[in-house]
Structures are given as structure tokens and as C-alpha cells.
Design goal:
It is a single chain. The chain has one domain. The protein is 89% helix and 0% strand. It is built from four helices and no strands. The longest helix is centred in the middle third of the chain and has 37 residues. The termini are far apart.
Length: 102
Amino acid sequence: MIDLLKKGILTGIGIGLMTKEKVEEFAKKTAEEAKLTKEESRKFADELLKHSEETKQQIEGKINGEVKKVVDKLGVATHEDLKKIQKQLDKLQSSLSKKTKE
């Protein structure tokens, strides 16, 4: 039972990491082996593509979350942090320019 669960999870991750072409190729091959009709084959391919996209998004979300944790832990400035600092510098520079003109 555990092995079946592991295989299912790994298959899900594997399908999630496939390109659209590879998913379609996998679906076509599997459909031929299972002797599915064209309609069943198309539905199967659509389901695999949908699952693949959902899995990619989930994996990407988890990776982004983990990277954010590491960046936060390290105390490294993010792009957003730098944007905020740049805005503050621009505001200060503008303020200083106004004062020197007066």
C-alpha cells in the first residue's frame, strides 16, 4: 500500500514537471496501451495537462515559500526592500534639491 502511494506521488510530481509536449506524448502512449477511444484519450490528455499545471504551480509555490524563508532567515534585502529604499532616497534627494534652491 505504501509503495503504491509513493508511486502515485512520484508519478504526480513527475507529470507536474513534464513539458506540455511530454505530457501529451505520455497520454497518447498510455491511451494506446489502454486501448482508449479518441474521446477518452483526449479527456485523459486534458486531465493530465490540467494536473501537470496544477502540480507545477504547487511546486513553484512551495519552492518560493522555502526560498523566502531562507532569504528572511539570512536577512538579505529583497527586490521589494530595494525598491522601498530607492523611493526613500528619491524623496530625500528631491527634498534636498528643493532646499538648496531656496
